[in-house]
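Board notes (copied after class):
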Amino acid sequence: MSTRRFADDLPDPIDQEAGTETFDDIAGEIQDEASAQSKPTKNTSQTTAKAAEDRAPSTSQPSSRSRPPRGSKKKSPKTTSHMPRTLSQVITEADDKVMQGDLMDYVPIPTGFDPLDGLIGGGLRKTELTLLGGAQGIGKTITMLQIARNIAMRPDQYAFFLSYEHTEAHLMHRLLCLESINPPSIDVTNGLKLRDMYQIIVAQRAKKFMGRNSGAGSLRAILRDHPKTAPALGRMMRYSDRLIMLKASPAVTNLRAIKEMVSRLSDATGGNVTVFVDYLQKIAVHPERPRDENDKVTIIVEGLKDIALSLDVPVLSIVAADREGLKSPRIHLYHLRGSSALDYESDIAIIMNNKYQILAKDHIAFNPYQAKQYRNWVVFTVEKNRAGRAMIDVEFELHAQHFAFNPHGQQVQQQLIDDKIIES
């Protein structure tokens, strides 16, 4: 596959005379800087002085690391986000944006999961941090990657997906399986499983190696020419230039690196980028030295909230459950691994549970034979919602073999465990 420059299709092209920066260059520079900072130094006093200098407000000229990409324009909200302003200035700034046709602060970005979007005010919003929690294997990464895909499908939106768990190639393979059933149509008759796709690639490459004319050489040619993979590839290519992925490192990719990359992407896309993190507890924390797990999670969640606020972007992050939560019949927000800062800092918190596991078995209407059909259904509970109703349960059918949910969900009608019954 040929490598394309990230700047090629951005709405604000970079000045060719001044030189160009690819997204790979940006990510590589930031990773190198973060890696250098994580290495211990022999001179402790110099390290302490350097850390103090980094924390102190700078009065000198900004360094090249903090400059926006060449040819991009710095947006006024970022330059004044930490400066005191009068209410009149705030009104004037907001008025200017509306007059220019910029209504993104007033229009949410739909996740594509209905009726979940209706419960959270229409979708994700700028400056807000949304947390997605649940047990292992419940479908958190599937959910978030599908939401990122849904957002990138819009011609004016970009999605930045940081994964500490999977490589970019593995995520691409998952997306091909997802596209094979074409959400929201959900045609599983032509659905691809990961194993089937691997077999197609290996078989076609073997034919080429054996000198057969029917064999294809490149991965793109294999996927394009095979009848089972061609439709999925075609659908994926519609948003391939707007879905940016990064295999993050738990040792290197810290909050500063994430903020730097998001800042550059926000400048390059006119602020139309949504950030996805898989997952929160794996974000590198340095040069800070947290005392324990709770302190580490506090630093991370406060940092993600700062990225959402200061860069004016939506942030959606997966959060793992703790041991007590994994043993609990039903996972709740307080079962997420870390500190109470998760509850304080988040604007929306959605908890995922397998429907069969949390059905009220002692309920008078419980039918064990009928209940088996719910094993492939996942309940999404909006446990926190700053701008709307909370503790609402909606359910979606999971097609795990194709790494996709049916985005047409519904409100849960059955009795669930841990439900609070309020008599009027």
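Comment from the instructor: The two ends are 63 Å apart (CA to CA). The first strand starts at residue 129 and ends at 134.
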